[in-house]
Amino acid sequence: MMTLKVDTATGDLTHGSLKRLETLTSFADIAKQNIWIRLNINRGEWDFDHSVGVPWIELFNNQASPEQFRAEVQYELERCKEIESIEYVRVEEIDRAIRKLKISYKAVLADESTLETALEVVA
């Protein structure tokens, strides 16, 4: 299994010193990147599948509670084919003024490895 590597700071494909596109080959790295992509898409904005992503704009506009944010993130994680089970999803911080959310989660992947990570999402 192999996929192109995405720079999580910019969302752009990455390339090495010879201008060759970089790839990911480990299941855990591919899973982490795929999850990052899913959580950084506003539901409905990806033309190929309008059901992918989290309804960030709706959540922020409707002054959603931390539990509503957590539930939507967990729902999207449960839809990831790379995840076998989710141990926890936590909302660490919500900054409504700039529409930024810090979350963390721990999941068991389909290859039985564990992925524990924190990330920021800006809507």
Secondary structure blueprint with pairings:
Elements: E1 3-4, E2 23-24, H1 27-39, H2 56-61, H3 66-78, E3 83-95, E4 100-109, E5 114-122
Antiparallel strand pairs: 1-2, 3-4, 4-5
Poorly predicted segments: none
Question: Largest beta sheet: what is the strand line-up?
Answer: 3-4-5
Structural class: alpha+beta
N→C terminal distance: 31 Å
Q: What is the general shape?
A: globular
Report mean pLDDT, rounded to a whole number: 93
Number of strands: 5
Q: How helical, in percent, are the residues?
A: 25-40%
Count of discrete alpha- or pi-helical segments spanning 4 or more residues: 3
- Biggest sheet statistics: 3 strands, antiparallel
β-sheet strand percentage: 25-35%
Radius of gyration: 15 Å
Q: Write down the secondary-structure element order.
A: EEHHHEEE
Brief descriptors of the model:
123 residues; alpha+beta; two-stranded antiparallel sheet; 29% strand; globular
Account of the 3D structure:
With 123 residues, this protein is α+β, with helices and mostly antiparallel strands. Helices cover 26% and strands 29% of the residues. The protein has helices at 27-39, 56-61, 66-78; strands at 3-4, 23-24, 83-95, 100-109, 114-122. The strands form 2 sheets. It has a 3-stranded antiparallel sheet, covered by helices on one side. The chain has a two-stranded antiparallel ribbon with strand order 1-2. A hairpin with a 4-residue loop joins strand 3 and strand 4 (100-109).
Give a brief description.
The protein is of the alpha+beta class and 123 residues long.
